[in-house]
Amino acid sequence: MPRPIALFSVPFIIGAHLALANVSDVGQVSLCTDYDLNGDCIAFDVVFDECVNLQGGLAFLNSQLSSVVIQNTMTCTFFSNLDCVSNDDSDHLDLGSGSWNLNTFNDQAVAFQCDGQ
Prior knowledge:
Layout: H1 11-20, E1 26-34, E2 38-47, E3 52-53, E4 67-70, E5 74-79, E6 92-95, E7 98-101, E8 111-116
Antiparallel strand pairs: 1-2, 1-4, 3-8, 4-7, 5-6, 5-8
């Protein structure tokens, strides 16, 4: 049975950006270190079109990300390179809204970026 997702404040990610962003430019993601939303998890708001590196308070997810929840009307791209850099089709994974196990991209993500659909 999946553990509930722990909600933590991540002010260094959302602080000034959310204050300046329109509500329609913000979405929520949940990220977990194990499949099926288990392990260490965090849920927080992200600003669309902004790269989030899994560093600082999110370092526990760096190359450890295994499952995610992406809210409705969003798509997120997970990258194996910092700063959301993609050099070819194998270094990123695009996901739409829903709950996902990363399967072939398990423990590879070091950054991500989300967009509204």
